[in-house]
Amino acid sequence: MKLNSVRFFIVTTLACVLLQWASTAAGATNSVGAYRTDQILIKPKAGIAHGALEAFHAAQGVKVKQVFRSGGTQLIAVPANETVQDLIAKYQKSGLVEFSEPDYTNYHLCATMPNDPAFVSGLLWGLYNYGQSGGTPGADIDAPDAWGVLNSASNIVVAVLDSGILATHEDLASNMWVNPVDGGHGFNAFDGTNDPADDSTSHGTMMAGVMGAVGNNGVGVTGVAWRLQMMDCKCFNNGGASTATIVACIDYAVANGARIINASFGASSGSAALSNAIAAAQSAGIIWVNAAGSSAGNDDTSPFYPPSYNLDNMVSVAATTRSNTLSQISNYGATTVALAAPGEAIYSTFDSSNSAYYPNPNSGLYLASSSYSAAYVSGALALMMAKYPAENYHQIIARLLNATDPLPALQGKCVTGGSLNLRKALNPDMWLSTGNASGGGLELQLSTGPNRVCTLQSSSDLVNWTSVYTNTTATNGIFDFTNTAALPSQFFRATTIP
Prior knowledge:
Blueprint: H1 11-25, E1 35-44, H2 52-60, E2 64-67, E3 74-77, H3 84-94, E4 97-104, H4 117-120, H5 143-147, E5 152-162, E6 186-188, H6 203-212, E7 227-234, H7 243-255, E8 260-263, H8 272-283, E9 287-291, E10 314-320, E11 339-342, E12 348-349, E13 357-358, H9 370-387, H10 393-402, E14 405-406, E15 418-419, H11 422-426, E16 431-436, E17 442-447, E18 453-459, E19 466-472, E20 478-483, E21 491-496
């Protein structure tokens, strides 16, 4: 079977594209948008004299490039000495066609592109990688397509256990959690106050920018989640942290309704007190996201804590490059590290002023750390919790891990062998490819996750859908179906239980 290159995505995206096509087929006018200058579309009027349209084509010196079965629409080449608008006008005046119109090119797959300058300029490659700065196109988390599904997690609280956050930053202020009791944004474990300002290396402020800088506000950067509530839990200062400051911040996060804890730290030795505190967070249904470490070590053979604690609410994250490889600085572990996410050449908010970002794009500085990777995953998990509010932390983590993109560079380096894909995590991936069956008819191939029960449905009008085939995908996530029904116009979609 030879499969066509056109793919229909998940049902929400499929509906968007097909509705646009159906609107054009119905003769709807569309005076806005780009179009091809070398061809137009016409539909012959019913009942015209035989040969009349062919004679008109010849008189205009045009060639019919294609005749579509759907409605008999014809694709007409525009002669070199003609313009699209003039040729359209001639066909409209001829009385031989129901419509003549440009071949519009302004269709899109419902991706959502924010207007934040760093995103527009391509600095945020981890969100959208189109090959800028020598990267590999698609080596990203598929954020624009995911944002078309959901970009706000405004009801989800993420506790950032770090050096503090500049809560007044222009790109962070409106996404800071507010304590309803004291009006503060979190907790300072060193002095027991509600003033957890970032006075260290700006590490916490940078993590906050990656996971939750305000999106589509025309300022600076955008986070993975455009809206969420970041709880500032300061357990690091210029002198580092202690078990006691970390545990105090965990207590605060649990007591004040955090759903996710982002932790970008670790040590080679464990602590019973810390393990017990994380277990308490587990009992409260909180997901703990931790950087895998940034010393190129194997966490399986050289334990790195907290990730090496055997707790099922733990998600440890390695760092990838803009070329879909494991970062040279990143820790890894076939059994202890769950997945990977972007962690090199990261640009984010900074604490030197309310409008500061780091590094300067022209400085040549190169920032790499699995800390950023953890922040990517925390932002993704916040959106997933907002999308699936009835699911517990086991189910959310399972969704996250089942939605990764497998990468050769990650095989044997983490549990999933894959990197974060936000689009799949928010809406399980499903593809329909088409081709001509050898014995006649249309052959469909559905690709999705392994061992999933899926139903193919058909429609001639995009309104009334009929189930035509139900099957369970094989271990490779695929099943085939041949449609032999001779229908002039037919659309297909697939549905499944996530």
